[in-house]
Specification:
Elements (H helix, E strand, L loop, with lengths): L1 H15 L3 H15 L4 E4 L2 E4 L2 H9 L4 E2 L1 H4 L15 H15 L5 H20 L5 E2 L1 H17 L6 H19 L7 H18 L9 H18 L9 H32 L3 H13 L5 H10 L11 E3 L3 E3 L8 E3 L4 E3 L2 H4 L35 H16 L4 E3 L7 E3 L2 E4 L1 E4 L2
Parallel strand pairs: 2-8
Antiparallel strand pairs: 1-2, 3-5, 4-12, 5-8, 6-7, 9-12, 10-11
Helix pairs in contact: 5-10, 6-7, 6-15, 7-11, 8-9, 8-11, 9-11, 10-11, 11-12, 11-13, 11-15, 12-13
């Protein structure tokens, strides 16, 4: 009976956090509750509803730790995201950033060029016919990026198929854990092991991949520490493989989902498709920031992660948001979940939150990739891919959805189908 209840709750949560109709209901409920309380207490778990309190929860890293709620859900074991100790987090993050490449560095520039070529190829291959943005565009691009940029596996069809299935299963774990003991949970655990095995068994990933750069950085750190008479225990080849596997898993699940949901919202929100076309034209004229602005605006209505991982309070404190009359007392051991969806519909920060607005905003107001110490380390990589996807699609002839398939179809939390076509 308990297993049936857990499975039902899982299906309801997946539907609630994905489908537009349910998201509107959720947005209305959270908006009404926010008028009376900035944090919704629901017994053992509390959800932040206001933008200020969500930001405070994410910023107060010493008061709230993520390890307890996140460790079991990471795709390849312990990873940067569940490290709560500031010094250790900073040291490992610096190494991971070397592997990923700087935001405006040559590595990300090369990634953009590769993504641009692949996106245009997928569109050309469709020959003007229907294009499945979910499976045959966004997800296909991510599989190419996993091999060419991250350096995982090979380019054989069998490996690509295995990775596609692995990432779809891990999307469940990232988005919402499967019921404990269920067949889906067991399959997900096997997928975690399979991903790490493929990463560890990758031969000669190449110096121009994340795995190759991270392996070189690990060797450099060990050599430097040995010369100084110390040991960097965490800097191992296993650590490099584990972090690259986790980065690829998080990136694949979230970017494919986000890209599909961005395109869907650009084609369904009033005036959004025109704003996207104008942003692409501005990009071609040298204004490089407007495409990302438009993408982040529409993603607010269908975010890739409506809720972030739970935070557990470490001591008695307060959520000291910039609302002194709305301070929230916190006792040790309490669990809080940052609700990004609710925060990005707070009218104090987003006037007329239910409408698509064209004015420029501070990108820091959008919390799609988190905030504070645990902000997504691959944020700039994901943003680069999302930009290239929007540019490739909206630079062409007018894009429109297939009439008989005007909604996104999901496979659990993973996107399965959203078909579009181009006007002749």
């Amino acid at each position: 009976m308990r297993a049936v209840a857990q499975a039902s709750i899982y299906r309801i949560l997946i539907c609630l956090l994905s489908q537009p109709a349910w998201l509107r209901v959720l947005r209305g409920f959270m908006g009404a509750a926010r008028r009376w309380m900035p944090v919704l207490r629901t017994g053992p778990v509390s959800l932040t509803l206001s933008h200020a309190h969500t930001v405070a929860l994410l910023e107060q890293a010493d008061d709230f730790h993520v390890t307890a709620g996140l460790s079991d859900r990471l795709p390849a074991g312990s990873f940067l995201m569940d490290i709560d100790w500031a010094g250790q987090h900073a040291a490992e993050k610096a190494a991971v950033e070397v592997g990923l490449g700087a935001e405006c560095g040559d590595e990300v520039k090369a990634l953009r060029a590769f993504a641009q070529d692949q996106c245009n190829k997928f569109i050309d291959d469709a020959k003007g016919g229907p294009l499945n943005v979910a499976r045959d565009f966004s997800e296909k691009l991510i599989l190419d990026v996993v091999h060419e940029y991250f350096g995982i596996g090979d380019d054989e069809e069998d490996t690509r198929f295995d990775l596609r299935m692995i990432f779809r299963l891990l999307a469940s774990q990232i988005f919402q854990s499967a019921p404990v003991g269920s067949p889906l949970a067991l399959a997900t655990l096997k997928a975690q092991d399979d991903l790490l095995r493929i990463t560890l068994n990758t031969e000669n990933p190449g110096p121009d991949t994340v795995l190759g750069r991270l392996q070189a950085e690990v060797a450099r750190l060990r050599h430097e520490a040995k010369a100084q008479g110390r040991v960097v225990e965490w800097a191992t080849d296993d650590w490099a493989a584990r972090n690259v596997a986790a980065l690829a898993a998080f990136g694949s699940g979230t970017v494919a989902r986000a890209a599909t949901q961005i395109v869907y919202r650009l084609l369904t929100l009033n005036g959004a498709d025109r704003a996207a076309t104008e942003a692409v034209e501005a990009h071609d004229s040298g204004d490089k920031g407007r495409v990302l602005q438009v993408a982040m605006k529409v993603l607010r209505f269908n975010p890739m992660l409506p809720l972030m991982g739970a935070r557990q309070s470490t001591r008695r404190s307060e959520l000291y948001a910039m609302c002194p009359h709305r301070r929230v007392r916190v006792d040790p051991g309490q669990t809080f979940i940052p609700s990004l969806f609710a925060a990005m519909h707070d009218r104090r920060v987003f006037p007329c939150p239910g409408r698509f607005r064209t004015e420029q905003r501070n990108l820091a107001d959008y919390l799609h990739f988190g905030h504070g110490r645990h902000i997504c380390v691959g944020k700039h990589v994901a943003e680069a891919l999302l930009e290239e996807i929007v540019i490739a699609l909206f630079r062409r002839k007018k894009l429109k959805p297939i009439k008989c398939r005007q909604k996104i179809e999901y496979d659990g939390p993973a996107v399965e189908r959203y078909e579009v076509t181009f006007d002749a």
